[in-house]
Write a structure and sequence with these properties.
alpha+beta, RNA-binding, Threonyl-tRNA Synthetase, Chain A, domain 2, 4 domains, BirA Bifunctional Protein, domain 2, Ubiquitin-like (UB roll)
Length: about 650
RNA sequence: GCUGCAGUAGCUCAGGGGUAGAGCACAUCCUUGGUAAGGAUGAGGUCGGGGGUUCAAUUCCCCCCUGCAGCUCCA
């Protein structure tokens, strides 16, 4: 007899060899009906596999909030899709088909080597074939053999042979959908749902290219993406999420609201339209003021600098293929991909006393990086962008305090924009690093100390630091729970060494200083892209390019509407007038489309009474108010950076 | 950079070997209106660029550019 411990802590005694299915049946008929797999001591297993020893057991049922259930269902769905593909495209070799749990969009994929091209137009056919397989409701069966046997079975299949060679353990398993030797079978460690009928709520989503083992020198494969859920509601929720992603796409919003555009004349660069430029401007005003309030000075360094600087900084060796560079009158130049070398040139040009440290030099520098073609994506990955960069020159014993201050700064900024949920990662000394162990210890201790003092939970990435020093990265979480890396604090003693940066200490001896590189927003472009998606274009009032629109009701109010817009503009509110010869319904609709925070409709009534009829973004009728009261309200929202 | 797919009016898209169409947007006129689309008329396109096949190419083929989805990268 063996003792099985259930998730609620209770125990059951069963004969050795009892299966998950039998265990479920002993608990309740409903559970037996519902069960798709079990988790045995933390490992997912098929329902039919015998349990041979005392263990903690959980019965997995189809629930969309259970990652284990989704894992099994999606994995099984990938197998069903594989069978459908092989039926429709005979000769297709299967390569690798894992479930995905982290991805917002896709739930699984299967890389296949098919004799012909499969396009998205073929997905409905494949899905229809899958429906047949699901209707046949054939059982998933597990077959185990030794590695040698498995290799014999897979002769002629380079992909699966490779998978077997790399597989852990000595037992290799195959899963059949139906009868062994007759129906579809795939090498797989499992587990799977009891039968193909358990895969119901799925969707095939996309086809894309991929490579065997991600290596472009190896075979080109086709990757078929799909998703599957435990319930119809789960699938529906996913459809809604997909629609939401499309609705929030910053590229579409940027075009619709006339904020920015992209053109072949400068691929990978945003062209900021007048309204979008206001966003850029407001953001720089904000970050400048925030830096000034925290003891920063601002510097500006050249865009084009001579090559020898980049050679000295190490960028020429490590970053050359992403740099724009050229010759001019037999001199070599490069366009800056980073601001640090320029900052260092300024620092080097003077003598520095310990009394002056730390020096915090911010630079809103525009940098160019030639990201390769396939990597460029809207504002989120561009080739030219403004960094809210800063370099802090400090004594080694000041690093921790500076890091503490910076952490506060970062959280403050994110909170201002409505991002409360920030994920922090600390990356430490990589295998290939430079600088002394002493330096590394000091820097890592400083960052760790700062995180501890701020009581911040973080993820540790051992060995993931930059070669010149450890770093803290800040990822903010948007309304769809997506994480975006924005801020970073990097300790650097490489630059101070290379450029011989020193300060005169109390004893009048030159001492080596430490440099911190930091960004908070990261890049203006990227940060604005994230903001736009987070708010679906309906940004907080203080950021909106147009904050108030005044709509005339009839021709009689043309003058009054224009005058009101003027008055608001004069009072520091970004306002415009909608004087078109159109009905209010249309003007309201357009104001909503343009995400205008406040729409004021001026009719005879308002002109006569001197009051304003105010409508807030999103069906909010704010009633009538006096112009002074409205102005006061909007100006307070702007000043206080109120969130919607 | 690699793979696949795409590029037709400002936007979203239809079409198809015989030099082009819709809706929205835009302009003008009618309407003078009360909180998510009033009506009419009109203007707008070397069908991404270059080459090839053809009597004829926007349509078929090749190359390039750009975009999208992935892969890979992400000091």
């Amino acid at each position: 007899m063996i003792t099985l411990t259930l998730p609620d802590g209770s125990t059951r005694t069963h004969p050795e060899g009892v299966t998950g299915r039998e265990l479920a049946a002993s608990l309740s008929a409903a559970l037996a009906r519902e069960a798709v797999a079990i988790k045995l001591n933390g490992r997912l297993m098929d329902l039919d596999r015998p349990i041979r020893e005392d263990a903690a057991v959980a019965i997995i049922t189809p629930r969309d909030d259970d990652a284990d259930a989704l894992y099994v269902i999606r994995h099984s769905c990938a197998h069903v899709m594989a069978e459908a593909v092989q039926r429709l495209y005979p000769g297709t070799r299967l390569v690798y088909g894992p479930p995905l749990l982290e991805d917002a969009k896709y739930g699984f994929y299967y890389d296949v080597d098919a004799p012909e091209a499969i396009t998205v137009d073929d997905l409905p056919r494949i899905a229809a074939e899958m429906e047949k397989i699901i209707a046949e409701d054939r059982p998933f069966g597990r077959r185990e053999m030794s590695r040698e046997e498995a290799l014999r079975c897979l002769v002629g299949d380079p992909y699966k042979t490779d998978n077997v060679t790399n597989a852990d353990g000595d037992v290799i398993s195959f899963y059949t959908q139906g009868v062994v030797g007759q129906d579809f079978e795939d090498l797989c460690m499992g587990p799977h749902v009891p039968s193909t009928g358990w895969v119901r709520h799925f969707k095939l989503q996309n086809v894309a290219g991929s490579y065997w083992k991600g290596d472009e020198n190896l075979s080109r494969l086709q990757r078929l993406y799909g998703n599957a859920f435990a319930t119809a509601a789960g699938l529906q929720a996913h459809d809604r999420l997909m629609a939401e992603l499309a609705r929030r796409d910053h590229r579409r919003i940027g075009r619709d609201l006339d904020w920015f555009s992209f053109h072949p004349e400068a691929p990978g660069h945003a062209f900021w339209h007048p309204r979008g430029t206001i966003l850029y401007q407001v953001l720089s005003d904000y970050i400048r003021a925030a830096c000034r309030a925290r003891g920063y000075e601002e510097v500006r360094t050249p865009t084009v600098l001579k090559r020898f600087l980049w050679e000295r900084s190490g960028h020429w060796d490590n970053y050359k293929d992403k740099m724009y560079h050229f010759e001019r009158e037999r001199e070599s130049y490069a366009v800056k991909p980073m601001n640090c070398p320029g900052s260092v040139v300024i620092f080097q040009a003077g003598h520095h006393s310990y009394r002056d440290l730390p020096r915090r030099w911010a630079e809103l520098g525009f940098v160019h990086r030639h990201e390769s073609g396939g990597e460029v994506q809207g504002l989120l990955r561009v080739r030219g962008f403004t960094q809210d960069d800063a370099h802090i020159y400090c004594a080694p014993d000041q690093v921790e305090d500076e890091a503490v201050t910076l952490i506060d700064f970062v959280f403050d900024v994110y909170r201002t924009f409505g991002f409360e949920n920030v994920h922090v990662e600390l990356s430490t000394r990589p295998e290939k690093h430079m600088g002394s162990a002493e330096h590394w210890d000091l820097s890592e201790r400083a960052l760790l100390g700062a995180l501890a003092r701020k009581k911040i939970d973080y993820k540790l990435n051992p060995g993931e630091g930059a070669f010149y020093g450890p770093k803290i990265d800040f990822h903010l979480t948007d309304c769809l729970n997506r994480r975006w890396q924005c801020g970073t604090i990097q300790v650097d003693f490489n630059f101070p060494e290379k450029f011989d940066l020193t300060y005169a200490d109390r004893d009048n001896q030159p001492k080596r200083l430490v440099m911190l590189h930091r960004t908070i927003l990261g890049s203006f472009e990227r940060f604005l892209g994230i903001l736009i998606e987070h708010y679906a274009g309906a940004l907080p009032v203080w950021l909106m390019p147009v904050q108030v629109r005044v709509a005339s009701l009839t021709e009689r109010q043309l003058g009054a509407a224009a005058a009101l817009a003027e008055r608001l503009s004069g009072a520091g509110v970004r306002a415009e007038a909608d004087l078109r010869n159109e009905k209010v319904g249309l003007k309201v609709r357009d104001a909503e489309r343009d995400k205008i925070p406040y729409l004021i409709v001026l009719g005879d009534r308002e002109v006569t009474s001197g009051m304003l009829a105010v409508r807030g973004r999103g069906r909010r009728d704010l009633g009538t108010m006096a112009p002074e009261a409205f102005l006061e309200h909007v100006r307070r929202e702007i000043a206080e950076q109120t969130l919607p």
